[in-house]
């Protein structure tokens, strides 16, 4: 990307959960984003009838470095061409329209996820995975499919990574984890009961934790040492299908894996060659 963006998506994602003063600022920005780009903190606080302190608190609520980053992201949003919104699939739609809409939803979710992922957090997560004695991965339902994908990728890369489908077995395994281990917990909402329990157990055992959740404050993202975010857009279609959100989670895993491969290329290639040879029936 030639510019950073995502400020407006971030504000829309957390708007309803913000305290009153921060909510007023968010609503003002969303109603007039172009004008905010050139404002100071004081000017924005006056325009939104709040205070400079509330503007600073809003930036912290968005998990941004400061008002300057928020303005840069909004400026990036203003430069982007407008896009279609997510749309539900109606009864009796043609396969042509379904293909078109699902493709659009997936692309939009990936673009928004790109905006939510902080590069420094990805680099830190990859570094922790590389130095981990073991990588414990947890997810339930559709997030479990993502956890399984992460397991097979990092196993092939030479990491001792595992995902256990039975949550009780996952808790048992994690209860014997070392403080040198890493736990990756995946949940779109960040509130899945089993995932929160897994995170609590990891923290109790002093295991380094990485969360993959939708953008915004959640139990998992607040507890994690390294929170990674996907787009927070709620899918219009039946939530149990977890279509675009699952795609976004898989994208984050792919980003982690490919960054890991790039950073530790020589040793990963050796591991990939060994794993390929091990399953090659011609050997």
From TrEMBL:
GO terms for molecular function: carbohydrate derivative binding; DNA binding; DNA-binding transcription factor activity. Residues 125-266 form the SIS domain. GO terms for biological process: carbohydrate derivative metabolic process. Residues 5-81 form the HTH rpiR-type domain. Keywords: DNA-binding, Transcription, Transcription regulation. Coiled coil: none annotated. Pfam families: HTH_6 (PF01418), SIS (PF01380). This is HTH-type transcriptional regulator YbbH. It comes from Halobacillus andaensis.
């Amino acid at each position: 990307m030639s510019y950073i963006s995502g400020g407006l998506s971030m504000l829309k994602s957390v708007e309803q959960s913000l305290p009153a003063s921060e909510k007023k600022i968010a609503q003002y920005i969303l109603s007039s984003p172009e004008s905010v780009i050139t404002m100071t903190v004081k000017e924005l606080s006056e325009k939104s009838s709040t205070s400079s302190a509330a503007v600073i608190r809003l930036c912290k609520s968005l998990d941004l470095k400061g008002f300057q980053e928020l303005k840069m992201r909004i400026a990036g949003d203003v430069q982007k061409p407008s896009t279609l919104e997510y749309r539900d699939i109606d009864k009796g739609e043609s396969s042509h329209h379904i293909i078109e809409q699902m493709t659009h939803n997936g692309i939009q979710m990936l673009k928004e996820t790109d905006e939510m992922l902080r590069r420094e957090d990805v680099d830190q997560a990859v570094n922790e995975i590389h130095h981990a004695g073991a990588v414990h991965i947890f997810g339930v339902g559709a997030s479990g499919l993502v956890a399984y994908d992460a397991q097979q990728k990092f196993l092939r890369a030479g990491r001792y990574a595992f995902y256990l489908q039975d949550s009780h077995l996952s808790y048992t395994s994690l209860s014997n984890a070392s403080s040198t281990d890493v736990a990756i917990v995946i949940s779109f909402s960040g509130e899945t009961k089993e995932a929160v329990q897994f995170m609590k157990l990891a923290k109790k055992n002093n295991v380094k934790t990485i969360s993959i959740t939708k953008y915004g404050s959640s139990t998992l993202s607040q507890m994690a040492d390294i929170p990674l975010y996907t787009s927070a857009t709620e899918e219009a279609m039946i939530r149990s299908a977890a279509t675009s959100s699952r795609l976004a989670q898989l994208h984050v895993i792919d980003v982690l894996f490919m960054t890991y491969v790039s950073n530790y290329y020589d040793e990963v290639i050796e591991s990939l060659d060994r794993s390929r040879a091990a399953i090659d029936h011609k050997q």
